[in-house]
Design brief:
GO terms for molecular function: ATP binding; heat shock protein binding; unfolded protein binding; zinc ion binding. Its cofactor is Zn(2+). It is found in: Cytoplasm. Belongs to the DnaJ family. With 386 residues, the protein is α+β, with helices and mostly antiparallel strands. It is built from nine helices and 15 strands. The protein folds into three domains: 92 residues, Helix Hairpins, CATH 1.10.287.110; 80 residues, Urease metallochaperone UreE, N-terminal domain (HSP40/DNAj peptide-binding domain); 126 residues, HSP40/DNAj peptide-binding domain (Sandwich). It is 22% helix and 26% strand. Strand 10 and strand 11 form a beta hairpin. It starts with a helix and ends with a helix.
């Protein structure tokens, strides 16, 4: 004997057929040319395939053990040549976990339902402080007539006569590589293994019907645009009355006329006349709580504007922003000041401004290049030269 087939498979001479099959599967996965690009992978794959072809056939194995030629000059190395104990299914088993000839069995009529997504628009205040909404959902529910079975009565379901309850039918084809067995879902029972002779008159065998129902949704405080809230088991009921999927509520926050939001921070603009910006003032700002009818919080919050504030500067009110979704406390309210210059003056106002310009030596002011904003780069350079 030129080769030791047992050594090629890595099994003992007393190995059982199952042990040899397991060893061959392992080697086939390692040596197949499609997954192994080593120069000798193809030759080694042919050798172990020939070894398994011989040892998996009881008659060829007996001839080999007596020292004879088990291939009889016919099947050559790697021929997959139709031995009684070897077929192309064994290679398929090696790569697909035993799927070549084994049956997957019938699939259950009872399956989990699909998840559903629903978009819900809320106001900015509702997103900030939370809200409870009742929504209407068109979804699949269990058929009350058949309780999800899909049959009009208990005796209406019988074993499929085409697949005999297996849920699939198999077909064997002869190829140059040997016999190839394929399986596909039974066309009669669609893979269930049983046939409903008298389907439910309400759901027509599906076990579920479409219906509109009400769901109460609690939106937690601090949610933002695009936040998704999961409602477990509130999605569609599955075929055959199977468990329901989940319902996801995606929050859409409507635009607010005053406030904009960035994370847990609120921002707004306050426009002041030139005189108020120069002299300083007090401003009462509306709060976000004022948008909620049942909210006990303050409707306004005071803002002290210091004298000499410039347009574009910001003032911060701590703890007047959006409540944090995960964690205690609230963000801040950032107020941007916009100084408005009067565009229409009467004679008296014009005279007063001329007097102010003379007192401040600003009758013929020199234009300044760059930003004069406090804390800017130009301002710091100017201060350094001073």
């Amino acid at each position: 004997m030129a080769q030791d087939y047992y050594a090629l498979l890595g099994v003992s001479r007393s190995a059982t057929p199952e042990e040899m099959k397991k060893a061959y599967r392992k080697l086939a996965r390692q040596l197949h040319p499609d997954v192994n690009d080593a120069p000798d992978a193809a030759d080694r794959f042919k050798e172990v395939t020939t070894a398994y072809e011989v040892l998996s056939d009881p008659q060829k194995r007996a001839v080999y053990d007596r020292g004879g030629n088990p291939l009889g000059g016919g099947g050559g190395a790697g021929g997959f040549g139709g031995g009684a104990g070897f077929s192309f299914d064994d290679i398929m088993d090696a790569f697909f976990g035993g799927g070549g000839s084994s049956s997957r069995g019938p699939r259950s009529r009872v399956q989990r339902g699909q998840d559903a997504l629903l978009r819900l628009q809320v106001d900015l205040a509702e997103a900030a402080f939370g809200v409870t909404r009742e929504i209407k959902v068109d979804t699949a529910v269990v058929c009350e007539r058949c309780s999800g079975s899909g049959a009009e009565d208990d005796s209406a379901t019988v074993t499929c006569g085409t697949c005999h309850g297996h849920g699939e039918v198999q077909q064997v084809q002869r190829t140059p590589l040997g016999s190839v067995r394929t399986a596909r879902p039974c066309p009669t029972c669609h893979g269930f293994g049983t046939v409903i002779q008298d389907p439910c008159h309400e759901c027509h065998g599906d076990g579920r019907v479409r219906s509109r129902r009400s769901i109460t949704v609690s939106i937690p405080a601090g949610v933002d645009q695009g936040t998704r809230i999961q409602l477990a088991g509130e999605g569609e009921v599955g075929p055959g009355g199977g468990p329901a999927g989940d319902l996801y509520i995606e929050v859409e926050v409507a635009r607010h006329p005053v406030f904009t939001r960035k994370g847990d921070q609120l921002r707004c603009q306050v426009t002041l006349p030139m005189t108020a910006a120069a002299l300083g003032t007090h401003v009462d700002l509306p709060t976000l709580e004022a948008d909620l009818v049942d909210e006990d919080g303050p409707e306004v919050v005071g803002l002290e504007v210091p004298a000499g504030i410039q347009s574009g500067e910001t003032l911060t009110l701590r703890g007047q922003g959006v409540p944090r979704l995960r964690g205690p406390g609230r963000g801040d309210l950032v107020v941007e000041i916009v100084v408005q210059t009067p565009d229409e003056l009467d004679d008296a106002q014009r005279d007063l401004l001329k007097q102010l310009a003379a007192l401040r030596d600003e009758e013929r002011p020199e234009a300044q290049l760059g930003s004069t904003h406090r804390g800017s780069v130009f301002g710091r350079i100017k201060d350094a030269f001073r």
